[in-house]
Amino acid sequence: MGELSDRRAQKKAQTRAHVRAIAHRMFAERGFDAVTIADVAREADVAVQTVFNHFATKEELFFDGRTPWVTGPADAVRGRTPGTDPLVALRDYLVDLVRRRFGAMSARENREYHAAIEASSTLLARERDLVHDSELRLAGALREEWTADTTWAPGDPATAATLTAATWLATVRALIVNNRSRVREGVCPQEIADTLGTLAEELFDAVMATLPEMQQRVGGVALPSTPTLGRRAG
Asked: What span, in angstroms and rounded, lies between the C-alpha atoms of 229 and 85?
């Protein structure tokens, strides 16, 4: 019985991967809005219902397997090296994320992925939803870590977590969204990655400098001092 269940799970995973690969190719070739679920099903030689069994919406199908950054910030906080300030771990992750996102655009597949998002209002809206999901996850992780370990905790972990997640992820989103069109204009992706990586470090320092005053205004709390912010974790 266990072996049969394993085979079914494997077959299901293979079908999902096959449908996703076909869909991603079609989206890149025709554009997201021009491709329907029926088109994908026909090209993948499966029933339309089979596609919906794996992906509830076309947007989910487009982004599937492409958004490790949704859980990444929260994972970086929870999985940091013992004794590391959560904010140091978060900054290291986000700076690396900016560099990796643009460095990866040297590959045609990644350039096509971002071009498809830019060309579709539906995908741009879904991307914003995913960023919001990431923000909620990050706020939850910071709140948990600051509550469990008061070494780095601000006076009001809940307020501090919400403000930190919102401001830090907004910074990353602005850097990525406002600069990815430059790759299509012919600017070297690695050059953008290096420039924005440095800029991200500077912006996070500036954001952190304003958070204590902001928190005092909304809740009478302040973030902890972060003298190690300029040093990478580990």
From this structure: 8
